[in-house]
Amino acid sequence: MFNLIKGSLSVFLLAFLAGSVTGQSIAHNEPQNKVRKNTSSVALKENSPPEKAIFFVYSPIRDINEFRAFAIQFARLKPFGRIDMTISYTAKKTDYEIPEGGSPWHEYAAYDRSITKFFPDEKIAPFIPEEFVKKNRQLLMSKVEIIRDLGLKAGFRCNEPYFLPEAFFEAYPHLRGPRVDHPRRSLQKEFAPCFNQEETREMYQNMVNKLFKNVPEVNTVYFSMNDAGSGFCWAEWLYSGPNGPSDCKNLNMSERVLNLVNIFKNGAKQTGHDIDIFMRGMFTDNEVDEIVSHLPDNYFLQGLGRGNYPPVKNIGSMAGSAYPVQGIINPLGILRTLNRDSESIPQRYNMGFGGAYGHGTERLETVEKVIDIIEDNLKNPAEEGLIPTLQSLQKLCVKWAGEESADRLFNAFVALDEAFKYKRVALGRFSTQYWGVSTRHITRPLVIAPQRLTAEEEKYFLPHIFNVSVDEARMDYMDIHGGSHNALPMGTVAKFLPGLRRVYTSMERISNAPEQEFLDNMAMALRIYSSIARSCGNFNDAQIIRNRNREVLAGPIHRPNKIPTWTGDQDLLDFNEIMRDELDNTQELIDLLENGGMDLINHAKDPAHEDTFLLGYDLIEQLKQKRKIMLDHWLDIEDYMASPFK
Q1: Residue 211 CA neighbour count, 13 Å, CB half
Q2: According to the CATH classification, is domain 40-276+311-388 in 3.20.20?
Q3: Could you report the per-residue pLDDT of 95-112, keeping only the tens digit for each?
């Protein structure tokens, strides 16, 4: 029998695990929000037996063969309930929406979903490229054929009311609703249609009717509102401030929201069954309370602080929270979530396997392992609590690593859970997606004076940094998305790395395991993730030093004075240490990627598709270029600060 106290599992660790949270990603791969839970059972559909469970599944897979394999994996869960596979990802990036010269905010919305991109009304269709719509609909219907063959159902995720091209509003000026873009992040204004206009509602009803006529299998609709391309008139938290036509200024927010969601309810009536509607978005607490008070059964809203969502078990991989890295899961977190008691009928599972606003996906082998855990748990349910959860983890480790290495893997998974708890508590909004990718800490050179880089040296990374200001993108390593300076205290990120190191080095010592290939890949994925986090920490700490010396670095190049010193300028010594660590870290990442790691990281497949949220197809060459530029500018710091001499 498994001894719960043996090995490294101390009483302190037991207490730690009992209080920890799951850390699993939630819808849209954003930080988990606290919501006011509705503990009452979800209303059952009339004249239908109660669902045992509902699995709402999403991943932005665009390859139809990959989607088929993805769906086949989830078909294993059919004996336990209904499976709603999200089908509403666009076939390609909406390049036509991005203004000439680029716009960071538009990259947020480049893969967002809207009913207008699949079944545009005849008034809208002339303003959206016909070939784009055709490919989207072909992909959607190809996915529908697969889920029909497998006996699965469908989910539809969308951002509504979504902005429309300016040419549309020039043709129909009376339908112009609120400005919805983010002024600090966008280089072009964008407007959504006004839902107070009957003509807008008629257009949407036509589009929604087409959706349900083509896909009667849709059971769950999930809206993202007032964010990433969508917005309602006069919503208080629109990024440009409350705005819209004056004639609808005094409407209640519930009336605006119900105008939209009732259109989807009405469209679903032609299918003979009701649908569930889930909404999340940028609403104030007062707006949430007002909307929720008017919502009928099966309408659910989650704001930033409250809502009426039923209890949902959020389970998936770490493709969002560890983006751009694939292949990482937290088995202890998954088991803890699965074992959590819930009286909700049906039990809902929110299952995400993607990240970076539709750019990133997860490896199928990783998805399979998550489903293995879920299937085994549903066949052999465990009681809620620490000890049953740890016993389930031990059984999983025996299955994956074998009896000989089970304890080692068990301790590694416990350490992984502990490391990510530290990250959630100590690192706040730290994100390898935002810091590493869209601010390009991964590939840009770390230097003391970025203004001394030439245009040729900058061209492979600077255009992809999320910032409306080229100068801020160039000069402030910690200006995250053009909104604010987001530095952490020096050395904070570095404290996260030893926990990760304990995990992957322990996993690397496992051999001859039943799931050896998966464990090897996960260990390498954790090394890659750790390297990216290390880069982010180095850029954070380097910027702190640069901030302290802002005036000196902005001044003319000069030689240090001739006063003898054994130590020189301490900031020079500290910066040189950071710069050397980043140089070595970059080489270690190159070695990982050259030895199979490119298969574990989301990246573009060709030069045309690299963008703010997607690393380049030539990532290894970019890292080599980063090292070269750093070495070429290695001595720049000596033009501003004194080095040691005697």
Answers
A1: 33
A2: yes
A3: 999 999 899 999 988 999
